[in-house]
From TrEMBL:
Residues passing through the membrane, by range: 21-49, 69-89, 96-115, 121-143, 155-176, 182-206, 226-247, 259-279, 300-321, 333-351, 358-381, 387-409, 421-444, 496-516
Membrane topology according to the record: Multi-pass membrane protein
Predominant location category: membrane
Pfam family, any one: MFS_1
Keyword flag Transmembrane: yes
Domain Major facilitator superfamily (MFS) profile: 32-545
Organism: Lophiotrema nucula
A GO cellular component entry from the record: plasma membrane
GO molecular function terms noted in the UniProt entry: transmembrane transporter activity
Family: Belongs to the major facilitator superfamily. TCR/Tet family.
Annotated region described as Disordered, given as residue ranges: 523-545
Record keywords: Membrane, Transmembrane, Transmembrane helix
Compartment(s) where it occurs, according to its Swiss-Prot or TrEMBL record: Membrane
Name used for this protein in its record: DNA repair protein RAD50
Length: 545
């Protein structure tokens, strides 16, 4: 059902759109909400579902050198395109635009599932990232247009919880699917739910958050309306940074001209981007007026550090389970359940009781730092009690801290600002994941060679590095296998210092989230009840007329 807006609360009036908004309610709203929550799960699930399948993928394609790009390709496109997709949704009708991004995501999955080479698989992941960028931003825009201001905070909270759930269940689903159906089915399984979401969108009327000009007229003026120069500078800086971290110490020496050029070019490009955005003001790719608010830049820093902490563990802990503990993909996913359960329980149970974001953000970062630091002590002889306990500490900490910037801005910014703010927070979170996975891969590869010389000198180090993680024991003689496992363990556990350091740094930025109460107040609930009665009454009047 549709109803015209009649706001009665100060909060709703503050977020009043520039045009006469029409909100969904009843069954259409909950159908749309269900579809968008499913989209949130899919976007996050795609990021981590191949983590437990990565060892078999590297074995299938016969190389481990591209392992970082299996995650980075998706993160690179979802990061670099997120700001641009927000502008696209401001220009074109939300329904058609959102469905287009769903199709792009499906095409990327199809290419990855049919990949004949590692490079083709990476291209599929990158195309899926393009679709995912629009899917996430589109979800926020559509929530804002379809839900009344009093409903948005609750809907946003549940949607963000779905992102966390999708991230943590990815390795479990990926492990089970890989073991029983094969790693390609980790991509095939996305197509049916995407089809279901498209079907729901075709059935429902989707309100617009801003008035839209005819599509043809918009296309003719597209070069004026989109900040193409800002996007080129922004994406260029992202690519240079990721290439530098990915290639440094592996394909090229850190002191090589290529790496130095990338590391010099990236900050110069960022400086040019800053000058360009200052010139464009609110017409730029990223609105500086919003980013300049203290809660936003502290939130962006925290999101970056939290993304670095979470995504590194999601990819490298399954590698440790399979290569050091000899677990199958499914068992490796099951062994990651302590992280998943702890993160979900902490995020769901504590959110309702949190009066101030900085307190829980600090506790979450401290718990994450302790849990990640303990992961560096793992060895082939570590008992299940060790790796379960360490995961619970880290998972609970991330479950608390990951959503604190989002909850803080919901309690501080107006509902109209929330979609733009969350897009910026998620950009920094995803970009951190891309960067930290490149750094972790560099640390791992650079440490594995010397470790093999120390623990398994008779083994061809290059053969181990270039083989898949599940093949390391097959290329070593029985006498050298214990040494190979020890070398792999030493190289992998070194990477867990990254999330530990990120969480420690994050602790010092938590106070910047502000001491505003973020829990729902009685007045807010009254406002919602009054507004809902107003909307229902107006609908009855419309029916009488």
């Amino acid at each position: 059902m549709l109803s015209r807006k009649r706001s009665v609360s100060p909060q709703a009036e503050k977020a009043k759109p520039e045009h006469d908004a029409i909100y969904l309610h009843g069954l259409p709203l909950w159908l749309l909400f269900t579809a968008l929550c499913l989209v949130s799960i899919l976007v996050a699930l795609y990021m981590t579902v191949i983590s437990t399948a990565t060892p078999l993928i590297t074995t299938h394609f016969g190389t481990i050198e591209d392992v970082d790009w299996y995650s980075t390709a998706y993160l690179l496109t979802i990061c670099s395109l997120q700001p641009l997709t927000g502008h696209i949704f401001n220009l074109f009708r939300a329904k058609a635009t959102f469905i287009s991004f769903l199709f792009i995501f499906a095409i990327g999955n199809l290419i990855g599932a049919l990949a004949k080479s590692s490079h083709m698989f990476i291209v599929g992941r990158a195309i899926a990232g393009i679709g995912a960028a629009g899917m996430f931003n589109g979800s926020m825009v559509i929530f804002t247009a379809a839900a009344s201001p009093s409903r948005r905070p609750q809907l946003f909270s549940v949607s963000f919880a779905m992102v966390g759930i999708g991230s943590v269940i990815g390795p479990v689903i990926g492990g089970a699917v890989t073991e029983h159906l094969g790693w390609r089915w980790c991509l095939w399984i996305f197509l049916p739910p995407i089809g279901a979401v498209i079907f729901i969108f075709l059935l429902l009327p989707i309100p617009e958050h801003t008035p839209k000009a005819p599509a043809l007229a918009t296309v003719r003026q597209l070069h004026h309306k989109l900040d193409g120069a800002g996007f080129a500078l922004f994406s260029g800086a992202c690519i240079m940074l990721l290439f530098a971290f990915s290639w440094g110490g592996s394909r090229f020496a850190w002191e090589s001209a290529t790496i130095i050029g990338l590391l010099v070019g990236a900050p110069l490009t960022i400086a040019l981007l800053g000058a360009w955005l200052y010139y464009r003001k609110d017409r730029g790719l990223i609105p500086l007026t919003l980013l300049a608010k203290p809660i936003m830049y502290y939130g962006c820093i925290l999101s970056f550090l939290q993304g670095a902490s979470f995504l590194q563990v999601a990819y490298y802990l399954p590698l440790w389970f399979q290569s050091v503990k000899g677990a199958s993909p499914q068992k490796g996913g099951i062994m990651l359940l302590p992280t998943c359960v702890a993160q979900i329980v902490a995020s769901v149970s504590l959110v309702k009781k949190i009066p101030y974001a900085p307190v829980w953000a600090m506790l979450g970062n401290i718990s994450t730092a302790v849990g990640s630091g303990l992961l560096t002590t793992l060895s082939a002889s570590s008992s299940s009690g060790h790796w379960i306990g360490y995961q619970i500490l880290g998972g609970a900490g991330r479950g608390i801290s990951l959503q604190m910037p989002i909850i803080a801005i919901q309690g501080t910014l107006s509902p109209k600002e929330i979609p733009i703010a969350t897009a910026n927070l998620f950009f920094f979170q995803y970009f951190a994941g891309a960067v930290v996975n490149c750094i972790a891969k560099t640390i791992f590869v650079n440490a594995l060679g010397p470790a093999l010389q120390e623990y398994a000198p008779n083994v061809d180090a290059q053969a181990v590095i270039h083989s898949g993680a599940t093949e390391i024991l097959r290329i070593a003689d029985a006498a050298d296998r214990a040494g190979v496992i020890e070398a792999y363990n030493k190289a992998l556990t070194l990477t867990f210092w990254l999330p530990c350091a990120a969480a420690i740094m994050g602790t010092f930025f938590c106070l910047g989230l502000g001491w505003h109460k973020v829990s729902a107040t009685k007045d807010a609930k009254k406002d919602e009840a009054v507004e809902n009665r107003s909307l229902d009454g107006e609908t009855e009047g419309d029916r009488e007329r």
